[in-house]
Amino acid sequence: GEVCTMINKKYTDFLPSVRGAEDLVAQVEGLASNIDQLKAHIENEVQRDLNVAGAEFTELKQQLERDTLVLSVLKKLQEFDTAIKEFHSALLEEQYVTAAQQLEKARSSLRILESRKGFELKILKALGKELIVQTQNIIYHLWQEWQKLIVWKLPPSKGSSSLEAVVLSELHLHTVPPQDKDTAVPPVAAVLQALAVLGELHCKLKDFGHFLLQYILKPLILHPSLEPDPEEQPDVFILRFRSQELALDEASPMEVFDKIKLVFEVLQKYLLNVALEQPGEGRVTLAELLGELIWEELSDCLIHNCLVKSIPTNSSKLEQYKEVIRSTEEFEKALKKMQFLKEDTTALLKYACNVNSHFANKKCQDVIMAARNLMTSEIHNTVKITPDSRVPLPELPDPGSGDHLKTHRPSNLHSGMVNLGSESRLSPLTLSLPTCRISSSVQQLVELAYHTLLEATASTDLCCLQLFNCVRDIFQLFCEVVPMYHRENLQKLPQLAAIHHNNCMYIAHHLLTLGHQFRYSSASVLSSVAVTFVDLVPGFRRLGVECFLAQMRVQKGEILERLSSARNFSNMDDEENYRAANKAIKQVLHQLRRLGMVWQDVLPVNVYCKAMGTLLNTALAEIVTRIVALEDISAEDADRLYSLCRIMVEEGPQVFTPLLEEDKNKKYQEEVPVYAQNWMTFKELMIILQANLQEIVDQWADGKGPLAKEFSAAEVKSLIRALFQNTERRAAALAKIK
User: Fold this and answer.
1) Which residues of the chain have pLDDT under 70?
2) Residue-level pLDDT at 422
3) What pLDDT is attached to residue 417?
4) What's the pLDDT at 454?
5) I need a labelling partner for 573 at 20 to 30 A (CA). Which of 14, 122, 293, 652 fits?
6) Angle of helix 322-337 relative to helix 253-267, nearest 10 degrees?
7) Beta bridge partners of 544
8) What DSSP string describes 650-693?
9) Is 118 helix (H, G, I), strand (E, B) or coil?
10) Which stretches of 311-460 are DSSP H helices?
11) How far apart are CA 271 and CA 341, in angstroms?
12) Residue-level pLDDT at 153
């Protein structure tokens, strides 16, 4: 019974739980069914409504954007329209700055409209055209005003900067502040500011600057006689010129600076002192803007036509140039104060302060030009040089007192003996040139070199080296210019070839010592560098020798050509042949005589004698060769050949006339055998032409006689066979020649 009770109790407890659980299951199933229905509802209806709402929202958003854009476009169109209207009314009232600003407003509105993508309105094209028309309209008005304010009165020959034209030019500035304020002409500032707003000021100023340079500033620099003549009247300021008579050829930089300063001062007072708002640049004055446009050209003109000319050509005047540097500095300061120049602009001052370099450049340029003129002048104007000739030199500086080469007196190359120690002594003429003639232009060229080097020793180091190099350049230039420039004459005229030869030797002679004379000026940088011209000496000697040898070849060729018409000196018993040979010899002697005359007193005697000896020798050798080659010489032939040779022997030495004094030439005529190697050969040939067989054998003397010295055995045998008939005596004589 107790167990039953427990089971009942448990059952009673369990039952509600089961029921509760069953209820819960039923509820969950109901809920699940509800969810399914709701899901189906969402999928079928709500999703569709959401899609529709989203599409509507996007469409509304786009609509709003479109409306906003249209509104902003309309706003900009309205702004454009307002700006153009206000522009018109401002222009009517001649309020140019306001008009220009309104026009720029319209332009920016239009730019924004044009940048809108997808809004290509046809109206924009029309607005653009309208803007262009109105811009041109205001520019025209401003240009008219500008022309009223700034009036150029130019001569008919517009574009000319000649003195006559410039004197007639005037600049009228109607910018004088009027007494009564009620004036129709707007002040210059308004016109300029309006142009600045429109971006047109640069263009106008460029034109003004061009005229200012051409008709006022440059003429003041180029024509020293011009003076600015400003005049102020109640309503106009006038700038004109007057020309001072008897002005100097060149004005000093100080005078030019003063004139230009005066022009800028009056321009500053009546025009340039206007402050403007430049788009993107802030406030600037008109002076600054004009300065940027014209200063480069103006400073160039001042440097090349004023400062360059004022650079001294003499180092002694360099000290006075400080005055120019000072006035250049003041000039730049004054222009900076007027704001015409920026603070960092120093082109002029830099140039002026660099005077030592410019002095050297100018000096070098002048020296090279002078040298070139000398090189291209006539060679045949000559001066005589003798062993004791000196370059007319200023006193060269003495060697420094502490110098170990104290005995060296640079300014006197030929002062007595040169001491080489106790034993040997050189003749005083060791370093001398032989007497000859050189071009006066070459003497001047060497003087120019000495004077330039002397100037170098007194200059700053940089300048000194530049001048030293310039002197080297002169001599190198000589080697290039002279042979080319005078080429034809040097080839054609034997006298010029001889003078050129002497010129080169004269220069080479001076180059040997030219550097050393200047090394002992201890203050100069030349004392510490290798100042020498010795390396140029071989080139000059070669130049002289080659030119003279070329002329010798020409003369030799002419001698041989003349002798070629002598019919080989064969068959002289034929009258015509004899005449031809006689004529050839006479022509050769005439040629030698002419050369002897044109080289007389020109070539040094030793060179003269060598040259004439060589040419005479050419003729003698050719005659000997032709006669030795003959196979048959009759007795009459031999006589006639002998008489032709006698002409050469008698008249040949007479062509030696190296000196003007006739009696002094005898000595050289007697020395002809020394200069013409074939002289004795020729004399021996004449002996053979007159000798009998025995005399020839005696002259040969078993190969030890005078004949053997001049001719080979084969040549003597050939002559015997030609002169004598084939006899036993001839055979016996031939046998002895070996």
Assistant:
1) 10, 14, 17-18, 117-121, 157-161, 176-186, 245-250, 280, 390-431, 520-530
2) 43
3) 39
4) 87
5) 652
6) 10
7) none
8) HHGGGG---SSSGGGGHHHHHTHHHH-TTHHHHHHHHHHHH--H
9) coil
10) 322-337, 347-353, 355-375, 440-457
11) 16
12) 84
Beta carbons within 8 Å of 421's beta carbon, 6+ residues apart = none
Tell me the C-alpha distance between 294 and 287, whole Å. Answer: 11
Task: Report whether 236 contacts 172 (CB < 8 A).
Answer: yes
Three-class SS of 443-487: HHHHHHHHHHHHHHHCCCHHHHHHHHHHHHHHHHHHHHHHHHHCH
Phi, psi of 249 (to 5 degrees): -65, -35
Tokens 């006899």 belong to residue:
727
Q: How far apart are CA 40 and CA 37, in angstroms?
A: 5
Q: How far apart are CA 642 and CA 627, in angstroms?
A: 11
Q: CB–CB of 442/500 below 8 Å?
A: no
Find tokens 């034109």 and name the residue: 207
> On the CB side of 145, how many CA atoms lie within 13 Å of its CA?
24
Of residues 90, 94, 130, 91, the one with CA closest to residue 109: 130
Q: Is 279 in a helix, a strand, or coil?
A: coil
- Full-model pTM: 0.64
Contact status, residue 211 vs residue 152, Cβ threshold 8 Å: yes
Residue 268: per-residue pLDDT: 83
Write the DSSP assignment of 590-608 as a string of letters.
Answer: HHHHHHHHHSTTTS-HHHH
Residue in the block written with tokens 């300063």: 261
Distances (CA, A) of 341 to 201, 287, 295, 338: 19, 8, 8, 8
Rg, the chain, Cα only? 55
Tokens (6 digits) for 26 = 């039923």
Of all helices (H) and strands (E), which one includes residue 39? helix 2-41
DSSP string, 174-225: --SPPSSS--SSPPHHHHHHHHHHHT-HHHHHHHHHHHHIIIIIHHHHH-TT
Q: 218 is written with which tokens?
A: 């440059």
pLDDT of 22 reads 78
- Name the amino acid, one letter, at 248: L
Structure tokens given for 432: 């001398």
pLDDT at 120: 62
C-alpha–C-alpha distance, residues 134 and 88, integer Å: 9
Digit-coded pLDDT (tens) for 598-620: 999 999 999 999 999 999 999 99
Sole residue written with tokens 């150029």: 152
Q: CA angle at residue 349 from 470 to 283, to 5 degrees? A: 145
The H or E element containing residue 130 is helix 122-149
Task: Tokens for 492, please give them.
Answer: 């054609």
How many helices (H) does the chain have, and how many strands (E)?
Answer: 29, 10
Tokens at 541, concatenated: 């000697």
CA distance 731 to 711: 19
With beta carbons less than 8 A apart as the criterion, state whether 602 and 437 touch.
Answer: yes
Distance (Å, whole) CA 449 – CA 462:
18
Query: CA dist 668 to 329, 663, 672, Å?
Result: 73, 10, 7
